[in-house]
Amino acid sequence: MKLNQLDGVLAFVTVAQKRGFTAAAAQLEVTPSAVSQAIKQLEDRLGVRLFNRSTRSVSLTEAGSCFFARVAPALGELSEAAQVLDAYRAGPTGLLRINAPNVVWEVFLRRVVAGFLAEQPGMRVEVQLEDGFVDIVEQGFDAGIRLGESVQRDMVAAVLTRSEQSCIVASPAYVKRMGLPATIESLREHACIRFRFRGSGSVYRWELLRDAQIVEVEVDGPLTLSDSRSMREAALDGVALAYTFRRLVADDLAAGRLVPVLPKHWPSFGGYCLYYPNRAQMPAKLRAFIDYCQAALARD
User: What is the pTM of this model?
Assistant: First the structure.
């Protein structure tokens, strides 16, 4: 069957149910002649007469009755399917899949997701934490969260935080044992925790500020990790210096569990963005989550 053979099926079922062209036309909000023409074209394509017509009545032929018995339930299924889609358009529902770095979960996403799920009981959220970069389209995510400068240009980005600052920290025990570096160059004399991206396998070069310019510094040390939370924990254990986001260790710095290292060289970056593919119609679940995130973070 060709696709255009389905044209007129809705008119056919409505006429059969209403037992007349005028009543069917009123329900479909078209003229009776338009309904009659749709039925005639459907009969021509199918090669059978579907209705017996007289000036006073309309009834199904034997072929028409057989056709109606099959297509009416199918049309009902299509109508119910459309109503399901209406629910998606009308409000958030279903599963929302998000890819984000570990640090984002730690500093704000954890509480945002909890609040969102409490406000939207019809939603489910799946968060995959990964510090490297992934193709969210290829891996089936609705959205990702990364620093704005890392978001690909073919994505649409919604700003969540205005700025983020990186920092270097050490435990008091490490400082007592090894002292503090006085310059960027003296980092080479210290044990540093290195970060390796899982996807590419490359080791991150620390980005520091010198004379208002970002410089990349290759460091060395006894421990390499692929998780930002583990780096904080290793720093607390006194293993080595750690390069991380200030948000993640703000409480530790305030409590003295960690101490700042070379603070005048800490760079600031554009904030985190939630990004997603450029689609004509944004899913209601994603729109609701973005709105909730931005409102919640604006209150911080």
Answer: 0.63
